[in-house]
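> call design_seq(struct)
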């Protein structure tokens, strides 16, 4: 049942439900630029509460809501809100619950979206909680793989970069473990995928860890690059030790399969140089554009239950 459902963790969705979002998103592609002709979410209000910066997630949720005929309200930074006066997350959620039909929330603290769901009658959609989860990014990532490779099963995926704090990797690797995939995690020692996530995933699919992308590039169908996130490091000196560790070289891409796709949740800093952008393997801007139809599909499922 989709109606009024919270989406806090990708673990809240099973494989069939993930595929249901993917199929609906595909049917909405023609309307992602023009708007749905029936405005199926007319009369609904989607609130976007972003306690952390965002370009893609907030604006694609807002575009998706508007393309479906819904109204949008919310804030993109806390400076203009009563949070600066000391209002708690719980109180803010109780208030916005009265003003909207769904709340999309991004927060720097892991677990904040789950906490919000306990204080809200309307559904909570997690748009990223600290180093925790980013389930709607995962849906658009799986959509990208499905659109660009024509399948999600029988593929090999390499995640490279900040796998410790990278919430997109945490959510996507968990979701991919529903499929027939091989996963390779490539990171410095200090940024390895958290042990509890690896343990959960390797019960279902083969997992390998590496320090060097060159070791594994030839096997990959998907290279999922992530930014080393300066803002998540408690100690700036630790960040300096790993900054710039994995800068993708055209020669590395050339060693990979011609059919390999390069993804990145964005924003990037220096890990994908601009000369990669024109390679046919580069799909990260297309990936970001898929945020609109995927979020249109998710809002439709949650707000109309179908
Ligand atoms: N991918 C992603 O979450 O981007 P933003 O931080 O710009 O929302």
């Amino acid at each position: 049942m989709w109606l009024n459902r919270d989406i806090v963790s990708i673990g809240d969705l099973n494989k069939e439900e993930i595929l249901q979002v993917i199929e609906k998103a595909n049917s909405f592609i023609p309307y992602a630029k023009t708007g749905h002709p029936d405005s199926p979410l007319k009369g609904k209000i989607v609130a976007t509460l972003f306690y952390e910066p965002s370009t893609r997630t907030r604006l694609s949720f807002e575009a998706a809501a508007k393309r479906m005929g819904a109204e949008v309200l919310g804030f993109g930074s806390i400076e203009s809100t009563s949070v600066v006066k000391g209002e708690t997350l719980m109180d803010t959620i109780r208030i916005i619950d009265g003003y909207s039909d769904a709340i999309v929330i991004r927060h720097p603290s892991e677990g904040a979206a789950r906490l919000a769901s306990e204080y809200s009658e309307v559904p909570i959609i997690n748009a990223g909680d600290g180093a925790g989860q980013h389930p709607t990014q995962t849906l658009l990532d799986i959509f990208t793989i499905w659109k660009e490779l024509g399948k999600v099963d029988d593929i090999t995926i390499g995640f490279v970069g900040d796998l410790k704090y990278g919430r997109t990797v945490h959510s996507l690797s968990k979701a991919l473990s529903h499929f027939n995939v091989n996963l390779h995690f490539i990171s410095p020692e200090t940024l390895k995928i958290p042990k509890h996530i690896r343990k959960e995933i390797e019960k279902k699919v083969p997992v390998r860890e590496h320090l060097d992308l060159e070791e594994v590039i030839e096997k990959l169908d998907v290279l999922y690059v992530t930014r080393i996130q300066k803002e998540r490091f408690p100690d700036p000196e630790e960040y300096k030790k790993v900054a710039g560790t994995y800068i993708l070289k055209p020669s590395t891409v050339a060693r990979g399969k011609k059919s390999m796709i390069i993804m990145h949740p964005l924003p990037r800093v220096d890990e994908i140089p601009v000369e990669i952008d024109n390679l046919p393997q580069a799909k990260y801007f297309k990936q970001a554009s898929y945020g609109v139809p995927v979020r249109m599909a998710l809002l439709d499922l949650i707000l109309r239950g179908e």
